[in-house]
Amino acid sequence: MRRWILFLMGWLLALSAQAETIRVAVAANFNAPLQALVAEFEQQHTDVDVRISSGSSGKLFAQIVNGAPFDVFLSADRDKPARLAEQGLAAEVNTYAIGQLALWSAADNIDVLARLKQGDFARLAIANPKLAPYGLAAQQTLLALHLPADVMTAARQRQVMGENVSQVYQFITTGNADLGFVALSHIQQPNLTPAQWPGSVWLVPDVLHQPIRQDLALLKRSGQSQQQRLAAQQLRNFLLSPQAQPILQRFGYRAHYAD
């Protein structure tokens, strides 16, 4: 009998020591920084195992609506987490990062802003402003620059529009556009100085467009345990904490409280 009790106690202790698994859906543009953030988080929370799935915000949103078993959703915009909350699929929504817009060319040592102002480009790539926050920010920047009428006409006529900002980056790297508005996170590399970044870049001042806020949602789903909810909250708290700030900056983002 005593042997059985000792076995049962050992089994219960082993069970309690197992890491709680939570599943996180993240927009593709934030996948690399999230990997770094999760590595830091798991060092501090050895009882939590974070599984990451990356994709476009739209596709991940559709999967969540259709019952995909995610516990946290990190979107590239504010709209989709808000819609999940409206549908009763999210318990809480928070801004976790603010993106930074850049005008970029894959060519080295050129003045990209001067090229834009002079209309000296064959193709200008932006994300669809109706779908992508970075596209809306790019559109607002073009208007705020008060470009000459002939340059604005050229920008419209020579425009290449991507479904999202990652596609804009692909247009430029493949030579389908010589200038474009991308996320700073596409070109800023951890441990590299701005002088070492690829191509030529102009960091767009924040005053020229609305903040590019990226929101996360703590999700509600069937089969979610109390421990998983608590682990998801711990991850959310870490992502919103000052501890996350240095990692966000290394990848070209600012903290939610930076404004």
UniProtKB/TrEMBL annotation:
Transmembrane segments: none annotated. Residues 1-19 form the signal peptide. It comes from the Bacteria. Pfam families: SBP_bac_11. CDD domains: PBP2_AvModA (cd13539). Keywords: Metal-binding, Molybdenum, Signal. The keyword Signal applies. One of its GO terms (biological process) is molybdate ion transport. Molybdate binds at S57, V165. InterPro entries: AvModA-like_subst-bd, ModA, ModA/WtpA. GO terms for molecular function: metal ion binding; molybdate ion binding. SUPFAM superfamilies: Periplasmic binding protein-like II. Belongs to the bacterial solute-binding protein ModA family. PANTHER family: MOLYBDATE-BINDING PERIPLASMIC PROTEIN, TUNGSTATE_MOLYBDATE_CHROMATE-BINDING PROTEIN MODA. This is Molybdate ABC transporter substrate-binding protein. It comes from Bacterioplanes sanyensis.
